[in-house]
Write a structure and sequence with these properties.
Layout (H helix, E strand, L loop, with lengths): L3 E5 L6 E5 L6 H11 L6 H4 L2 H4 L1 H8 L6 E5 L7 H10 L3 E5 L6 H9 L1 H4 L3 E3 L16 E7 L2 H5 L6 H11 E14 L14 E2 H11 L2 E6 L29 H7 L4 E7 L3
Parallel strand pairs: 3-4, 3-6, 4-5, 6-7, 7-8
Antiparallel strand pairs: 1-2, 1-9, 7-10, 9-10
Helix pairs in contact: 1-4, 1-5, 9-10
Length: 269
C-alpha cells in the first residue's frame, strides 16, 4: 500500500494528504519501478528497500527521467544504483557530489559498471577552495541528500549553513531539494543533534528556509514508530551499523532502521 504524503497548500497554512505516486506521470512511475528492480543492484542494498522505500521516496520528490539530479554525499552508492540509471537512461544528468574522499564508493561503482554509470559526473561539495569544481549554479532540477544533514551539524566545525546555501545555488528556479534524515523529537534537547545522528524537523526547515527555500511538504513513507531514539550509541545503534555488535542485536534488528523525516523544498521561481 502506498503511504500518504502531506503537501502544503498554496496558502502554506493547510496540509492536504495525497498519494506519493501522484507526483509522477504513469510512464515515469514505471521507469522508476524498473530502476528499483534492476537485477544488477546489490543484494544487500535490495534487502534494505523495506526500510527506505526508494520508489515512493523519489516519486514524492518528483524526480523524472531526463532531469539533472545532484546526489549529495552518495556514500557507497545505495541510492546511486537507482537514481543514476533512472535519469541517465532518460537523457538526464546525474552528479555525485561530496568531498573527494567521499566519492570513493561511487567511483568504485562507476568503475565496476561503466556501461551504466560511465556518463555520470562527480563534483566537489561543499566547495571551499578555488581549485574545487562544484555543480554549476542554476543547473540542477533536483538536489537530493539522504541521512546526511546530521553530519553537517556535528564536529568542531559544523557547516550546515554553507551546505544549504550551496545546494540552493546549484538549483534552477523551481528546482527541488529533497531531504531524508533521522528524526529527533521536537521536545528533545538540541544538544542531541550534535551527538546522536538525529535531527529535528524544525532544524532542517530553518536551515533550508534561511537559505531561501520554500517548504513544500513532508511524507511519512520513511517513518518508523518502533524507533525510540534513546540508544547508547545514537542512531548507529540500529541497523545497518549495529555499533554495539552482538549486544542486544536481536532487539535492534526488530526495531529496524531509524525513524526518518522526508521533506521537500523548492527554490522559488
Amino acid at each position: 500500500m502506498i503511504r500518504a504524503i502531506m503537501t502544503v497548500a498554496a496558502t502554506g497554512a493547510m496540509l492536504v494528504a495525497a498519494p506519493a505516486w501522484s507526483q509522477l506521470a504513469r510512464s515515469d512511475r514505471a521507469k522508476l519501478e524498473q530502476a528499483v528492480k534492476r537485477p544488477a543492484r546489490s543484494a544487500t542494498n535490495i534487502a534494505r528497500d523495506r526500510y527506505r522505500h526508494p520508489a515512493a521516496t523519489l516519486a514524492f520528490f518528483g524526480v523524472r527521467p531526463g532531469d539533472t539530479v545532484v546526489e549529495i554525499f552518495p556514500g557507497g552508492g545505495w541510492y546511486s544504483e537507482i537514481i543514476a540509471p533512472y535519469v541517465l537512461a532518460g537523457g538526464g544528468t546525474y552528479y555525485a557530489a561530496a568531498p573527494d574522499r567521499g566519492l570513493a564508493g561511487f567511483r568504485k561503482l562507476q568503475q565496476a559498471n561503466p556501461m551504466v554509470y560511465g556518463k555520470a559526473r562527480t563534483a566537489s561539495f561543499p566547495v571551499r577552495g578555488a581549485g574545487e569544481e562544484g555543480v554549476a549554479a542554476g543547473s540542477a532540477d533536483a538536489v537530493l541528500t539522504f541521512r546526511n544533514v546530521h553530519n553537517w551539524l556535528m564536529g568542531d566545525q559544523p557547516y550546515a549553513d554553507l551546505a544549504f546555501r550551496q545546494m540552493y545555488a546549484m538549483l534552477k528556479p523551481g528546482g527541488v531539494l529533497g531531504i531524508e534524515e533521522h528524526r529527533l523529537p521536537e521536545s528533545a534537547s538540541a544538544e542531541r543533534e550534535k551527538t546522536s545522528g538525529y535531527v529535528k524537523v524544525s532544524t532542517v526547515r530553518r536551515l533550508a528556509e534561511q537559505a531561501g527555500f520554500r517548504y513544500v511538504g513532508a511524507s511519512e513513507v520513511n517513518a518508523n514508530p518502533r524507533d525510540t531514539k534513546g540508544y547508547p550509541d545514537g542512531v548507529w545503534t540500529l541497523p545497518p551499523t549495529l555499533r554495539m555488535g552482538d549486544k542486544d542485536q536481536a532487539k535492534y534488528l526488530a526495531i529496524g532502521e531509524s525513524d526518518r523525516m522526508t521533506l521537500k523544498f523548492v527554490k522559488p521561481r
